[in-house]
Amino acid sequence: MTAVDETTTDPAAGSPANTARAHSHGAGTVPDASRAERVTSFDVADFTVPTGREEEWKFSPLREFAPLFEAGPAGSARVEVTAPDAVVHRTGTLQEVGAGTAFTPGDRAAAAGWATTTEAHLVSVPAEAELDAPVVVTVRGTAGSTTSGHLVVEAGHHAKALVVLAHTGSGAHRGGVEVRAGDGADLTVVTLQEWDADAVHVGQHDVLVGRDARVRHIAVSLGGKAVRVSTNVRYAAPGGDAQALGVYFADAGQHLEHRLFVDHEATNCKSYVEYKGALQGDDAHAVWIGDVLIRAAAEATETYELNRNLVLTDGARADSVPNLEIETGEIVGAGHASATGRFDDEQLFYLQARGIPEDEARRLVVRGFFAGIVERIGVPEISERLMTTIETELAATALAGASSTEEN
Amino acid sequence: MPTLEIRDLHVTVDEADGGTKEILRGVDLTLKSGEVHAVMGPNGSGKSTLAYSIAGHPKYTVTGGTVTLDGEDVLAMSVDERARAGLFLAMQYPVEVPGVTVSNFLRTAKTAIDGEAPKLRTWVKDVKQAMDDLKMDSTFAERNVNEHFSGGEKKRHEILQMELLKPKFAILDETDSGLDVDALKVVSEGVNRALASTGPGVLLITHYTRILRYIKPQFVHVFVEGRVAEQGGPELADSLEETGYDRFLTRA
């Protein structure tokens, strides 16, 4: 892969922002002075319907997302929860499940989703409970309908749990996810976007990390017509360790967008962000925004973020924008890297020179590219299923590219 | 007896300015099983181009001549077909393949070359033995291919593949470069083991003569400006040791 941009930021050097691939930033767009100034509110009226000129919407296909900006009554997606006995699962209104203590909508779709959610879910892992099996929450959308939902995932102090949120089916869905990890908890939340090809999804995931807690948030976006997941990480107290990992595979005409915001205010916290994506086909579009803010009070912060894109065919576009704002020099380290590259012909040559046919060589390379993250999901069956889906998508490239290869 | 035959091979490479440059200008070489041929020459003489052209690297364009393996047209084959036909290239700068473990890579390659998966039990034993022989730690198998390998580890890994894949012809491109004496001995022993067991033809490409103290060639070819300028027996390497390439360069 060709590294297009690699930056490690000196803590004292300020806040660079860069993109992995040359693209216009759209005249007239004024970035916020600080990421912290972005509006958050439970009131839909505080957010106008996006026009595409806004910093936070300029990469998004607004025509696809339009139904999700409407604040009229919406239905609920079908939700199934399977969980070990120790876990408490409750369904009710937002108030009934205690939503909103660690979640505030950050854009029009999230606010409209909040306003129209009639059925919310709470998954609560008691303090000190260590689950021996994952909690699985399946959200199934229905074609032709616009749905709203909210899920609260709560891990009591020193609890250890893995929660898998799987999105399937069709329709237009906005989903709020509120993750609250208690002191010393060890919580992994995996969100799988395995939608049908015509689904549209905007999700906001707010993660609050307790004192000395460890939270991993893993987003996997493979399906859907247009998917946008915004993940916001905050720390309730010092000592928290958050990892936000993701993989995505954008096909022709598909838009997959991941927006990360890690807000460091407590001291001695760590964050690590790593997203990897592959793109293939005309108008395959991936967007990755990685904002990290280290506030003046957040001394001894350690953060790193990384985005890698593998562009498999012409006509695909990856936008990658890491952004680091640092308001204190008293930190352990801060850095970011972003790279967008083509398939590495030298890797293919090496594998083929060992007798491995081209299609299998491509599969090996792409599998290897994603393996580091997918294998960290912690549920072998899910990792294997995702890898199979990725390989199936990849097979489409081999077919499309067959006419242009082997010219020797 | 398997024979790799290179006849009047002409190869060009595309240049940055859009033009093409001829690197090989009519190479003739015949390699038989069990033979070791050293190809020596100054930098830029086309040694590596010969190696990569035989293996089928897309960067090089063959504009004339033939390469045949037991009469089969190698140049008509894809890169992987050439490997399955029995050609092996130990690369000077093997590339990293992140996320693919050595063990997975070796098994995949062996399966591709043999046309069937190796028997698990004997395979595991063979790999372990070959790694022991090359003084490679067993944790090596679980590392990603060439990722964070030292120069010496990369070369051992190349020879490990040669020993396990058992090609009919192996081209070793500057396998000695960047190795200290101990590593050079280990790697050379690997090549000698392969010669003793499956007896491939070996094309040993090298700038320096030091690897020839451990791997004995029957034939030495001196490359200058894209063709064989002189050939002979091992004594030719000895004379190069003394005089270097100067006499070829001044003549050119």
What does this 3D model show about the protein?
The complex is a heterodimer of chains A (408) and B (252). Chain A is mainly beta and 408 residues long. Chain A folds into two domains: 5-342, no CATH class; 344-408, no CATH class. Chain A is 15% helix and 40% strand. Chain A contains five helices and 19 strands. Chain A has helices spanning 62-65, 108-116, 345-352, 358-374, 380-401; strands at 5-7, 78-82, 88-92, 120-125, 135-141, 146-155, 160-169, 172-181, 186-193, 200-209, 214-221, 226-235, 241-250, 255-264, 270-279, 285-294, 302-311, 317-326, 333-342. In chain A, the strands form two sheets. In chain A, strands 1-19-17-15-13-11-9-7-5-2 form a ten-stranded mixed sheet, with helices on one face. In chain A, helix 4 runs antiparallel to helix 5. The longest helix of chain A has 22 residues, at 380-401. Chain A is globular. The two termini of chain A are 22 Å apart. Mean pLDDT of chain A is 90; it is low at 1-30 and 401-408. Chain B has 252 residues and is of the alpha/beta class. Chain B has one domain (3-251): Rossmann fold (3-Layer(aba) Sandwich), CATH 3.40.50. A six-stranded mixed sheet of chain B has the order 6-9-10-3-11-12, sandwiched between helices. In chain B, strands 2-1-4-5 form a four-stranded antiparallel sheet. Chain B is globular. The model of chain B has no long low-confidence stretch (mean pLDDT 94).
